[in-house]
Amino acid sequence: MPILFDQIQQFLFPHAIPLWQALGLVALSFFTSFMSASVGIGGGTALLGVLASVVPVNTLIAVHAFIQMGSNTGRTIAQRAHVQWKIVRQYAAGGIVGALAGGLFFVSLPESTLLIIIGVFILWMVWGPKITIPHIEKFGFPLLGMTTAFLSTMLGTAAALTNATLRRVGLKRQELIGTQAACVLTQHFLKVIVFVWLGVAIQEWLGLIILMILVGFVGTWAGTRLLNAIPEHLFDVVLKVVLTLVAANLIRQGIFFIS
User: Fold this and answer.
1) With a threshold of 0.85, does the pTM exceed it?
2) Cα–Cα dist 31/192, whole Å
3) Pairwise CA distance, residues 110 & 199, whole Å
4) Burial grade of 131 (CB within 10 A; 0-12, 13-18, 19 or more)
């Protein structure tokens, strides 16, 4: 029995980090999934920020993609009745191109510039005047999928950009949360395929990834219950505040890198 316990522990918790850090990441998976399920964004960014301090850079984005794929699967299942699948299909079509490009090429612009551009764009999508984009149902969502998949492959996450754009379509809160979850699920799924194809080594982290996904399902369930209890107008206010904070942090990171 002790040998079996040691084997399980070795599989679940990588040797690269202390046990307390691994357990902290598992707990964080619950809270970030709870945040994403109840508000729609913020969880993936927070998780990436903490992972960056403990996971090697060469595997960071891949590990994050696997965990987020599991988290968004839970949210998609929980909100499947509200998902706008037509948008998801168009988003995924563009995402195929973006994920492949992101896996094969480096971004020509500096990372600091990209962070600032994304942050400013999110602020404009939240607070700027609403502009009707002609034929967005034909061109807008594939372009969004391609852009966010490309950026996400480089920066780890672009969920806030997806959320801010979908918000302008006029989706209700459950539709917004569910549709974004399904869109981002396809994005991370495509990234995982690309990373596996490129041979990124994540074997050491696989057990921890599985454990974090399972705990994340619990956080998603709890966050979904809170989402259903939040009034529509309050949800809109909270979402605006969270998006603004995320955008401001992206701009801050960009300026910090420049300086």
Assistant:
1) no
2) 23
3) 25
4) exposed
Hunting for tokens 């595997």 — which residue is that? 59
Place of tokens 């990373």: 195
Q: Measuring CA to CA, which residue among 215, 234, 246 is closest to residue 32?
A: 215
Which pair of structure tokens corresponds to residue 3? 């040998």
Q: Is 221 buried (19+), middle (13-18) or exposed (0-12) by CB count in 10 A?
A: middle
Structure tokens at 95: 């995402």
Nearby residues of 240 by Cβ (< 8 Å), 6 or more positions away: 126, 127
Q: Which amino acid is at 58?
A: N
Give pLDDT tens digits for 27-58: 988 988 887 777 666 677 777 777 777 777 66
Mean pLDDT in the chain? 78
The length of the chain, given as a count of residues: 259
